[in-house]
Specification:
The protein has eleven helices and nine strands. The protein is an alpha/beta fold. The chain has a single domain, classed as TIM Barrel.
């Protein structure tokens, strides 16, 4: 009986040892297919003014806490997007809002109160009225002593249609800011008129409800929401060590916080290769996921990424980050 128990324990140990070896070999990046090329760079809101994140809440007026300006660009404008692409961005993220006359404006905040010279929401105004708004009115870096962009933002709020016409061959990540499914339906209606190849250059993310509404009307669209992330990553965390790829991980977008990424089976190269095969874009954002706007904005930030990382990178300062990877191939943004 003792001999039998020893044999059972020995076989159990051997099975566990073989399982651990399999898990290691199947997930280590040391044995992964080599990845070539530079990281995919996503410029958040184009080239924009940045601000301190200390003590920030959903109600914080970020225009009132910007750093001293180092460039003349305002977020979500055609000039800021042009500057981002010239600097080396592969994709620009932008935010959309509906207007009173059912047009799609490009603007970030829930209300107009913080950045502009008017009050209320975009839905309180027609697009023609919003073109008269000064979107640089509220920016200050010294507690209100000076307002360096006042008077310079009149007419700079674009429509989504204007953005796509201005940059017909560029890639965009379009953010639906609300949780209203009507926003997703309206956006899907607008995007359905685009050629198939143009739609492939776009991705869409936001609240679960508008993303689901858009996906229902445009099943071929690349989308992301908290719900789609969970449908992909929860089963992957459970069984990804086997190489299993959940169907929900195919043809989607994943924004992975840097502190969560090492928990993913095969991170970084094996995981990235698996997602490439599934036609899924992986973007690493800064921090632990408490703020998905946190990015890699300095050379010091980039050092936190794995050596030779070649996936996607979220940045609020494309002008500082792109030269680290693209060198002289990136143009200097016009001033």
């Amino acid at each position: 009986m003792k001999r039998l128990k020893r044999i059972v324990r020995s076989k159990t140990f051997m099975i566990l040892a073989l399982l651990l070896v399999f898990i290691y070999l199947n997930n280590t990046s040391l044995l992964a297919k080599p990845r070539d090329g530079s990281p995919f760079l996503l410029a958040h809101r184009g080239l924009a003014q940045t601000f301190t994140m200390e003590g920030i809440t959903n109600d914080t007026c970020t225009a009132e806490r910007i750093y001293p300006p180092e460039h003349p660009y305002l977020e979500n404008t055609l000039p800021s997007m042009e500057a981002a692409f010239q600097a080396g961005a592969d994709m620009v993220e932008l935010d959309i809002k509906l207007t009173k006359d059912d047009q799609i404006a490009v603007f970030h905040d829930w209300t107009l109160d913080c950045r502009t010279n008017v009050k209320g929401m975009t839905t309180d105004y027609t697009m023609a009225e919003l073109k008269k708004v000064d979107i640089g009115y509220g920016y200050t870096a010294d507690g209100g002593q000076t307002y360096p962009f006042r008077g310079k933002g009149v007419g700079l709020m674009p429509t989504l249609d204007e953005v796509l016409k201005q940059f017909p061959d560029r890639s965009f990540l379009i953010h639906m800011k609300s949780s209203d499914p009507k926003e997703g339906t309206r956006l899907a209606d607008a995007m359905s008129a685009l050629p198939e190849q143009r739609l492939k250059q776009l991705a869409f993310y936001g609240g679960d409800e508008p993303v689901a509404a858009l996906k229902a009307k445009l099943p071929e669209a690349r989308v992301m929401s908290i719900a789609t992330m969970k449908r992909c990553l929860i089963p992957y965390l459970a069984a990804g060590w086997t190489g299993y790829m959940p169907s929900a991980c195919k043809h989607t977008e994943l924004h992975i916080p840097e502190k969560i990424a090492p928990l993913l089976w095969g991170w970084p190269n094996r995981f990235l290769n698996r997602m490439d095969k599934a036609d899924t874009r992986v973007i690493v954002v800064g921090g632990d996921g408490s703020d998905f706007s946190s990015g890699f904005d300095s050379p010091e930030d980039i050092k936190r990424l794995p050596a030779h990382y070649s996936g996607g990178i979220w940045t609020n300062r494309i002008d500082r980050i792109a030269p680290l990877f693209k060198g002289s191939s990136a143009e200097e943004p016009a001033t």
